[in-house]
């Protein structure tokens, strides 16, 4: 669906829109592993709804460029492919990781399949033969939360992680081109090891090469621009909100859509003016969507996760056993010294 935008209104699943007519949703709140495919071209009459199932719950969904297949990554670390044209056909296991998969992406020509896992790795494999690993993109120090192949520069990959970094790669050779420490944008004195948040969404505008990223636990959107000649990211702007932001999406003909936790103003629309993204209020499409969400707010709010529903459980846990050992050792030494003193001075 070129020029369209998909916002996750349900907040109870993953929503991925295909290139022309299909919509896929997969629950991320249970372990039943179900996902659904809808034919949006028939939505005004009777939507075509087809159900597929994987072993564990879905963590990411994406369509191939032709919309003939959908790839589903699950919690156990596997990626399955399902036919959209033959909806009741069983899924095919394409590849597997030893840890949970958090995102899956395809190159625009469907030549490469990219997978991101909890163990800091991004794997690049040939889609036709997924056992053939082309490269690894290594450098993140925490789970890789999102990956995104730049559609109009298909050799470039964006990735985000629990280490609070946004990285740019030439993924076919596993070369890191740039690393942005996002926590320093909020606090210039922050150290690279400070882990405050992870990115939950990456969206891209091809017209001006703009990138918007949404963080999972702070109401902030960071705007970057890709310099395609230098293959570098340029930080442009920070958008701050008074309410929790649920999702964001660029639409080439409209601007940047923002879905937030606010009944009175659930959707915001930003346009580019003089090099800055500014909110607009007079827009018929915006008015129609906002009114619709306002009237159905009970359903929207009921499907939203709590504030604690984030990537917090995925961070590595470290145990400092040495500190406790040295402390107890010092206590034993002091006790022994006190005993010796008492013996000398009964």
UniProtKB/TrEMBL annotation:
PROSITE patterns, alphabetized: WD_REPEATS_2 (PS50082)
Entry keyword set: Nucleus, Repeat, tRNA processing, WD repeat
WD repeat residues: 137-179
UniProt GO cellular component terms: cytosol; nucleus; tRNA methyltransferase complex
Pathway(s) annotated for this protein in UniProt: tRNA modification; N(7)-methylguanine-tRNA biosynthesis
Highest taxon in the source lineage: Eukaryota
Keyword Secreted (UniProt): no
Family membership: Belongs to the WD repeat TRM82 family.
Name under which the protein is recorded: tRNA (Guanine-N(7)-)-methyltransferase non-catalytic subunit WDR4 isoform X3
Annotated organism of origin: Phascolarctos cinereus
Native organism taxonomy: Eukaryota, Metazoa, Chordata, Craniata, Vertebrata
